[in-house]
Amino acid sequence: MNKKEIEELIKFVAKAGVSEVNLELKDMKITIKNASPRTEQVIHTVAAPVAMPAAAPIVAAAPAAVAAPPAAGKAGDESKYVTIKSPMIGTFYRSSGPDKAPFASVGDEVKAGKVVCIIEAMKLFNEIESEISGRIVKVLVDDAKPVEYDTPLFLVDPS
C-alpha cells in the first residue's frame, strides 16, 4: 500500500463519519481513528472476518439511516411512509440463509431495534435494525443484490 492509497483511505474514513477503521495487510497494520464524535448504531456481526487482499476496497460501517419521506415527485400516498436506507455498501439479504424465513416482509409489524435485513460487506454479515416502529409497506431491494450507502431498502408506515 503506497502513500497515496493511505491518504485516500484517511479521506474516506473522515467522509464516512466512522470513529475507527483497522486494516491489516501482510507487512503492515493501519488503524485510523476519527476524532469527530458521531452517534453510531451498534451493528452485530455473525461471521468472523477474513484476511483482506491488498487491492480490495475498504468498506466502513456507518450509522443506519432513516430518511425523510420520498421526494414529492412520487405518488402522493407514499409521502406518509418513512424509508429505511442502507447504512453501508454491501450485498443485501432479507434472511440469514437461503432456507430461512425473511427478517421482514410486506405487512410485518416492526419495532425500533428489530433486525430487518443483513448487509454483507467483506465477509462480515451486519444486521440492520429498524430505527422506527411501524408496518413494512414495501421491500425496495431484491434479495442478494448489491446496495450502496443510502440505498432505500424498505418503506415503513409509522402510523
Kindly list the characteristics that best describe this protein.
159 residues, mainly beta, OB fold (Dihydrolipoamide Acetyltransferase, E2P), 2 domains, 5-stranded antiparallel β-sheet, 4-stranded antiparallel β-sheet, 9% helix
CATH top level of the largest domain is: Mainly Beta
Per DSSP E runs of 2 or more residues, the count of β-strands stands at: 11
In the CATH hierarchy, what is the superfamily of the largest domain? RNA polymerase II/Efflux pump adaptor protein, barrel-sandwich hybrid domain
SS-based class: mainly beta
Distinct helical segment count: 1
Task: Report the span from N to C terminus.
Answer: 51 Å
Return the CATH topology of the largest domain: OB fold (Dihydrolipoamide Acetyltransferase, E2P)
Task: Describe the protein's architecture and organization.
Helix content is 9%, strand content 32%. With 159 residues, it is mainly beta. It has two domains: 3-33, no CATH class; 65-157, Beta Barrel (OB fold (Dihydrolipoamide Acetyltransferase, E2P)), CATH 2.40.50. The strands form three sheets. A five-stranded antiparallel beta sheet has the order 3-4-11-9-6, with no helix packed on it. The protein has a four-stranded antiparallel beta sheet with strand order 8-7-5-10, with no helix packed on it. A hairpin with a 2-residue loop joins strand 7 (115-121) and strand 8. The longest helix has 14 residues, at 3-16.
